[in-house]
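## Example record

The block below lists the input lines for one assembly entry, exactly as stored, with component labels intact.
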Amino acid sequence: MALLHTVNKSPFESNTFDACLGLAKSGSTVLLIEDGVYAATTGNSVADKIKNAAGINFCVLGPDLQARGVEEKLAEGIKVVDYEGFVDLVAEHDAVQAWL
Amino acid sequence: MALLHTVNKSPFESNTFDACLGLAKSGSTVLLIEDGVYAATTGNSVADKIKNAAGINFCVLGPDLQARGVEEKLAEGIKVVDYEGFVDLVAEHDAVQAWL
Amino acid sequence: MAKKFMYINRKAPYGTVYALESLEVVLIGAAFDQDVSLAFIGDGVYQLTKGQNTKAIGQKNFSPVYMALGDYDVNKIYVEKESLEERGLSLEDLQHLVWEDEDNDYEEKDSIRLVSRAELTDVLDEQEVILSF
Amino acid sequence: MAKKFMYINRKAPYGTVYALESLEVVLIGAAFDQDVSLAFIGDGVYQLTKGQNTKAIGQKNFSPVYMALGDYDVNKIYVEKESLEERGLSLEDLQHLVWEDEDNDYEEKDSIRLVSRAELTDVLDEQEVILSF
Amino acid sequence: MKFSLQINEGPYQHQAADSAIQFTKAALAKGHEIFRVFFYHDGVNNATRLAIPPQDDRNITAEWVALQKEHNLDLVVCIAAAQRRGLIDEDEMTRQGKDANNISEGFRISGLGQLIEAGIEADRLIVFGA
Amino acid sequence: MKFSLQINEGPYQHQAADSAIQFTKAALAKGHEIFRVFFYHDGVNNATRLAIPPQDDRNITAEWVALQKEHNLDLVVCIAAAQRRGLIDEDEMTRQGKDANNISEGFRISGLGQLIEAGIEADRLIVFGA
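Predicted structure tokens for the full assembly:
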């Protein structure tokens, strides 16, 4: 079993991203969408959290990165997907947990 | 001049309370309402923040504490007000900043 | 075949409607004979506190409804230990939720399962349908 | 007598409507000849980033409107330094907002004032009407 | 003292809508004047007359309407926010060629200038939101 | 694969309503089936036919209606959440003695059991909210 976790809140304003990391099992995937995409940017106070989350696959929704003008700030090791990639991730995992 | 700050988010889920403390001037008042009242409870991971905020007056809305069943957990040094007390606080301060 | 349904509750009561409307789904969902669990994580643990009194805020106090969950065969209620501790709460601060085991002479059993974050991670991992509020 | 109006912007754009609807108030409010300031704090600083492209999310890109604020005599735009730094941003990442000083031969001046948290505290303390979004 | 309120959230979803009512009642009880209540963002949803809350729950719109009648409150719904969200009055219905309207009595639809004016004319502006 | 969606927030206020539409379009484009879209909490506000968004902005309800027509989607609005928030159809209007209704074509009002069924019948349930 592997879950897909979606996070749509900014890691700077909400603890949602931390809560997700606390309960995401090794082998699961975290997809950052909406204001959650800021967690995928580099050079900031949360960047180490992704580096230190061993065994979790991180993806980010490209359309949301582009909308916010932070595409060039993307941290290493995070896969960018579009909405069709989002759909694929849902299909490839056993269930989806939305961290709202 | 002295501002009244209102905070209505839980300090455990949102950075709103921290943001307020960062910009509240000595002599101003912070009123905790709605889910913000949890910041007024004791024995938890945020309790020290109020203790360390020198020069700020802290108030909490009693009706919101009671609704949430945490009245008995109230930390020391925080004044409990009802809605009429809320109105008085607004009148006594020069302006209101709502930390949403 | 019954599916594993998990209701994730992460929000405090009254500040938003999610706690109440989540409870409404759980009660309706109980009729569908699925394998139902509830998890209370983060501020969600505040939903279960004793002594809620909403009179002065003008909202309905729905906390007594949690006591009825056992009667609906909703008796797997996971409460995350770390979430309680961060908030200065213990099980004593929560309502005592029970259910009657009809396979065991209607013995009264606790519904709340206090679990660590690591244990809850494994529980979540087994779920097939996760409803988030 | 003009009142000191402060618009506090603390939310990222597009995730919620607040950034857009705040901007709409600012534009309408500009006609009222008040002493207007804007503060961008926390995720609010993201409203001003360069290079926003909303085509793929189906929302309107309203970021060019910030460039027009100077024409509406809205030229006191406070950006909190600490908020930028926490997010790994610098002024270079934000749009260059300017206004023309008609008292000074229409000289082009910067609208953004990069201020520390301590400085912003003093600015907030002087306000008479604070609109929060 | 003269107060104005800005309400950013709709009924039931966030407590902001409730807090604003409780504040208004307390302010009026203490003899203050409410210059205007301005409903913005999802706050416009407080103004629907079509809501049917459960019988054992509060009816937020009805509470505003009762307060409006008793104290002649000026309850203003932002026209731009309301149009986006499907809150329209009879005039808007006709003008926009819609077949129904849903704004309750006691509320009036107007522009954002009314919010600025509320800030200028009142001694204090208080924002309720999420 | 068969997907069900739950939408917890209304249009414009939160991006959740937009993300759900984009996801639905992408899923359909990839040949998946959408078993049901269930609108809960403020999500019921997506179903109003009275919205008049600015001409240069998207019309979220109209997008759902277009998708519904093309793909015969089952768009279900939670009756309890809708009643609280003033979203009613013609039947509800008559039954409750209201003078107007505002649900758009393409949506149907039903109970929470439809959400549970959506979870049971679909291969995946995805929640969009705030």
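Chain A has a mean pLDDT of 96. The radius of gyration of chain A is 12 Å.
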